[in-house]
Every structure is written in C-alpha cells, then in structure tokens.
Amino acid sequence: MDSEDELTQFNQLLSECSKLLIESGCSSNRLESLLAKLGGIWNFEVESLALPTGVSIMVKKNGKQSVSLSRVRNWQINLDKIQQINDAVDLFFSEKPEISEALKTLKAIEESPAPTLLG
Fold this sequence. Notes:
Largest sheet: 3 strands, antiparallel
Distance between the termini: 50 Å
Number of helices: 4
Order of helices and strands: HHEEEHH
Oligomer: single chain
Radius of gyration: 14 Å
Structural class: alpha+beta
Strand content: 15-25%
Helix content: 40-55%
Number of strands: 3
C-alpha cells in the first residue's frame, strides 16, 4: 500500500473511531487521547479537536498529511461501547494489526447490539 493510501485509510480509522466514541458519550479529552494513542501505534502524528458534535483530525506521516472533519448528530450514553473501543485500542497497541483489520474491528463494535438490562 502506498503512503497516500495508508494515510487516507488511517484517517478513516480515526474518523470511524471518533464517530463511535462521540455517539456513545465519550468525553472530548478522552477521545483526543485515544486518537493520539492510535497514531503512536502506527507511527502517525495526530492532531485532533473533539467537540460534543464532531471532530477535526489531521494526520501526518513522511511529510504528507490528511485532514478530515466529522459531524455527529446522534448521541447516547453507551459505556459498554466506549469500553469495547478502549479494549480494541489496547489490543491494537499490543498486536499492531493492519489498519484494514482495525477498521473491521471497529465496524464489528459499531454493529454490535446494545447490552440488555436485566430486571
């Protein structure tokens, strides 16, 4: 994969992760911290600005950069989904999968059903 494709794919990973976290009620500072951690895993420089309604991301590597802006319009508190993403980031840190595999993991988290309350 050439560096432009890798940069674009990694920015997509961060955008997807950000969207899931904001929709699930993650705090802005925690989101920015996770994005920086993801950048470190794959040796990208990441700058982000997270707000309750979206996130701006700039990714740099080898003198090239990619910028994205994502808007979020749906929110809920889903601590289970936030924990799943945190666990996935920890797994990425230890195993450093291909970016495409990390995207598949996030997609599976996105599609997972909300936990049911026992009562």
